[in-house]
Structures
1.
Amino acid sequence: MKIHHHPSDELLLDYASGALGEGWSLAIATHLALCPACRRAVAGMETLGGGFLTSVAPAPIGDDALDIVMARLDAEPQEPAAAPVAEIPRGAEPVLPQPLRGYLGGDAGDLEWRRLGLGAFQVPVAMEDRRTSVRLLRIPAGRPVPEHSHRGLELTLVLRGAFSDATGEYKRGDFQEADDSLEHRPHAAPGEDCICLAVTDAPLRFSSVTARIVQPLLGI
Amino acid sequence: MSSFEPGRTETEQLNQLLLAVAEQRDRQAFRALFGHFAPRLKAFVMSQQADAGTAEEVVQETMVNVWRKAAQFDAAKASASTWVFTIARNMRIDMLRRARRPEPDMNDPAMVSDPEPLAHERISHEQEAERLRAAVAELPAEQQEVLRLVFMEDITHAEAAERLGIPLGTVKSRIRLALKRVRAEVGERE
């Protein structure tokens, strides 16, 4: 698998520094599972973070801080905690890598897909941080992605199949960063349905009661 | 920023101490790590508008986690200071921002593994880290300043622009230039 479209340095840097919010970070972390090159880039940025930690002017620490911590170690298990080993499911490679699969509680085939129109389906991904709207989309092979307007940034990560628009073709692992100035009319490639993760800024909250009721129904 | 580049021996010493904690649960080694990292971690956390008391709590929690997770430290992948940075970063997201930071799972069967490095690419992580840090130390002051803000204060590019009173585009271009310069040093991402 050769990935041609990567997240920007800005996103990777904000992920490495810790400033990036949960929803955007989920798209980056899931891309990292599929992209050794970006993992290496993030590791390099973390090395810079380690350098800044080394070079900072030390601040005086409380006299009892070491004693408090040493006392807490007494309560820890004596054996070093082994690196956690995840249960590896047998069979084919999952469509959804971690951490996305954990957020959804299953792989693509286990989910309750909701009809979105034009043959497309979606599954919302629940976030603690409500500033982003995160969902998994399934677009039928060869069909256009349903008209979707969004404000601000939209990140799309392809997990199965492919889609293409004026900016190129996106396959498994490819990452698209679009702002609202990009007028793209993405189409799923023929062959198999396209499954992708989409992260956008959370929709504006309408003040009218009707809009508040209608909004979730429309899925906007 | 001459101290950005720690001496090679110091880097090795810290790695050895951390390995002693991981493999032998060595408390003396842990005390030495605490002596080195705790005051730096406190400055690091306080740079994010945390008061001294809160910062002290984050430092203690970070050091307890260094003890707890020491077995996960891999000297072939990161130096001790880089590894401690990632623990402190996650701790401050957890404790100060009360937020989640999703991460890939190295044991996931969907994980695409790293390619085998070609013979000439095989340089140790320590060498690579040293080259990265040397490259940062040589960056123009304004580029170092933006990188420092992003890492130390855990703020986004937009917030950094506000803090420095310069346009967002300037922050982005400084970061891009800085990363390009640093990356040329280690030949990252084709």
2.
Amino acid sequence: MSALVEIEDLTVRFSGERTVHALNGVSLSVEKGEVVALLGESGSGKSVTLKSLMQLLPGKRTKIGGKIAFDGRDVLKLKGRELANFRGPEVAMIFQDPSLALDPVYAIGTQIAETVMRHEGLSRPDANARALDMLKRVRIPSPERRLSNYPHEMSGGMRQRAMIALALACGPRLLLADEPTTALDATVQMQVLLLLRELQQEMGMSVIFVTHDIGVAVEIADRVAVMYAGTIVETGTIAEIIKDPRHPYTKGLLAANLHGAVKGARLDAIPGAPPTLEEPPTSCPFAPRCPVAMAACHAARPPLISKGPGRAVACILEAESVL
Amino acid sequence: MSANKTITTAPSLADIGGPRQPLITAKDLTCHFPVRAGILAPKKVVRAVDGIDFTIAKGETLGVVGESGCGKSTTARLLIGLVPITGGKIIYDGQELNADLSLRDLRRGVQMVFQDSFASLNPRMTIEETIAFGPKVNGVPQAEALAIARDLLDRIGLDPARFAGRYPHELSGGQRQRVNIGRALAMRPRLLILDEAVSALDKSVEAQVLNLLEDLRRDFDLTYMFISHDLNVVRFISDRLMVMYLGEVVEVGPAEALYHKQAHPYTAALFSAMPSMDPDARTQVPPLAGDPPNPIDPPSGCRFHTRCPLAKSVCSSLKPRAITLNEGHQVACHLHDPASGYEEVAA
């Protein structure tokens, strides 16, 4: 298999005022040209997974275990110049808030040009031409004029496009997208999703797309990994997850999406709240909220049970149904 | 003391006009914000809300949708007097604000819950004190106000014995939003404005809070104005929907009817921007191009004509009237107005 990214048993622990076990054994592989969505609620470890892929977590307070291989290279061992060359041409990231990701004191064109000059050694005129080309590719209207715009002169949707242009300027093989459409209006969100889908196909890159919105995952992803309390509870193609959710948490999330919910009906809300993760989970982390939990669920962590290629569920109910 | 009693036991403002009289009537409601420009530059204003009419019936839930900057939140803030009214009238149960009714009295009848659950709570007050604060300021004795607070904590699903003494930072987002709802209800309002109140919550928690809102509406006989960008949520909770664009109302109608058939092209675009939830039928065409225009200098005629796929020349010159399609379903679009001249251009 030509997996581009291979994450194996990744654990992340933050220390400080209180310890947080943010990731507790995450394994995930992403093929070349594949779009994988990490779906989960806040605190489930989606963003931490992305950030560890780029070594963006604060070094002093973070303890990382497990392995991340990018095209056979060990990402967690990269340092200094090697790491700088890895970020950009190999892996790029886009964020939820473009106004924090873009530099407010440089024009958009300058920021894109600087990136390609640094990474590809282009001359300034060539880099400027690349910047213009990128703005055209993300379909910013009148791109020549926009090159000299500062981030604050653009609307939210436009800034998001500019950030995508910046991230893709060096033609990365993997794009990490951390809720890039969450802060946008629904109409603009759909524009940006369609753009990302198009660019992904054009450039043939792999994408890991973090979202809490199952509807967004449907629009963009080939495969979905559902996360809960720093673990992956279910993976499958988007169609499998939507049409045949197996894990009780996935089922709850789908019900809470309210798609087609009728007025006045009572919602099947998942009771309670996610665990705080001050201790690493020793049992199924979802068991306290699970409507079908049994004694065994509180005793040990459920294994990830494979249900065919790319399909797995971390629930002991699945083990029984196999027997 | 008898005056205080009315706040605690019954709605502070008793029903006056009977069930047929709308709880809120807004007439030509306008809110313009001045923009600072140079000394010689002509004075400009942001037309945040530009002459809108609407009513909210007693006991109903009015959902308000539209893109950011369309004036949803400003409309809500006008209703509770958080921003100054530039023009038009607000009539609460037959009494006009600033004529028959003071702002202070209006705020007993109208309360609001905001999106940011943390920013809207005082970090130095326990949640019990927070909920008791409103009644106390309005003259309810301390002990009684605390009793109200404990009763409300129980109703919003936070056990008073465990939670009463906690501070906002000791609660989760969902719990804090419950406190905000409790705080708003402590004044026994008749209208509760929920401005993106569940938008920041995780999906599983959002469903819990929506269930709670439904229970409270029944128990307290409440009327809701529910602002959200999530059309699934709005459909679930609303009786009627009001769609806004650039400070104007473009369509109002029964929520379920609007969900199935939208009369205004903008409403149609909003609904088609909802993710399909079917991986085999993904959205292929973006519902709308670009962003909304600048409300400082809105387009002439129909404000939507710059982005409308069906726009014709009449749309850029003539402002559309509100046309009634069915009972309670109104739309401001030339497409539905035979007198507008839209069809003639087509011929």
